[in-house]
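queue> holo job accepted (histidyl-adenosine monophosphate)
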Amino acid sequence: MNRIERPRGTRDFLPDEMEKRRAIESIMRKIAESYGYREIQTPTFEHLELFTIKSGEGIVEEIYAFKDKGGRDLALRPELTAPVMRMFVNECSVMPRPLRFYYFANCFRYERPQKGRYREFWQFGVELIGSTSPLADAEVISLAYTIMKELKLDFELHIGHVGLLRHLLRDLEEDKASKIMRLIDKKDEKGLESYLNEIGVSNDLKESIRAMIELAGGKDVIEDAGKIIPDFDFTHIETLCNILDALGVEYTLNLGIARGLDYYTGVVFEAYAKHGLGAQKQICGGGSYRLAHLFGGEDVPSTGFALGFDRIAEICEIKTLGKKTVAVVNFSGLESEAFKIADQIRENTDVHVVVDVMERNIKRQLSYANDINADLVVIVGKREIQEGKVTVKDMESGEQRKLTLQELINELGS
Ligand code: HAM
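queue> job finished
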């Protein structure tokens, strides 16, 4: 029989890695909750249409789409912003605004797998629904920033505003403007050049686009952008910068950020890891957008982000404090005693307790305890039972002592 391999672009996670991923996840949850965000969950698959309406060609090409047995067109979610907005329109449109939601979930994109790019990957994200204010952008950006700082990641945060580029492109048809945004997002300079020539945009506009996407740096960038689009109102981005400065958030203004998804309307931002990820170094993406009206709701402004959980797990050096492991030796004829003692330790302490289920001799049980890095071995033999005690072997020092079960529990703490 041939071995069955995992599908391309998917991964298995062994216990050490899961422990690390859960530790990272719990920091993300804790911080999001401390900002008043509450967790939600949406289905793994949705109607295909949800993602084809406005997510943009880039995403649509990568969708895992299929027909179910009833002939319906469905898709595995490539991201969660569209599902959350669908849920908002269906279930939450009368709730007091703003709404603060967060999610941690797997997503699927049919991309060419490489380091940091998978076909199944996880996002931790938030959506703040109902505000157009720069205060809302400031909140989500500082939340993303706080999470990445708390995880001690070495990253750069870039903030832009798609409104500026869209303003430049306002006289072009929607699909042409979107294609230009996509080429800018991919940093495909040649492709951009030839597309601009192909659709025959003026030299002035070409020059303005080129100048705008090269603008990156401190707040003086806003002044430079003002020279390219003098009729644009920069108050929103200025207010945002002032708040972020006051909060000590470090960022680069980068007006060349176009984002791969079509639904963004205002401030957008991305974070890039400085090392360890190669080409797939974007660890966070987000911004403000309007989607609700496309799903049958009113036109509600929202802002949010998603952290690329797998990329972060790859570079985060968090140390997990594994719990102590106690191995209870199981002797023939005394199995119930061993199981009962194990249960009492579990009920009264916070350690991991494993009991032999292989019916092996004591030597091999000790050797297995050593292999799994058990901290203590608890031996419950006939003599121990008569004395009302257990023998406890410290696997590091080799020291062996007789204790009552209560003494052992006290030592292990609760
Ligand atoms: P996105 O930039 O497409 O935005 O994805 C967010 C993050 O997911 C990326 O920055 C990246 O770290 C990670 N990511 C994307 N594709 C892959 C992949 N194939 N393998 C591993 N990681 C990946 C969104 O999805 C928006 N929904 C974010 C958002 C929320 N905007 C507003 N609210």
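queue> The domain at 15-315 is CATH 3.30.930.10 (BirA Bifunctional Protein; domain 2).
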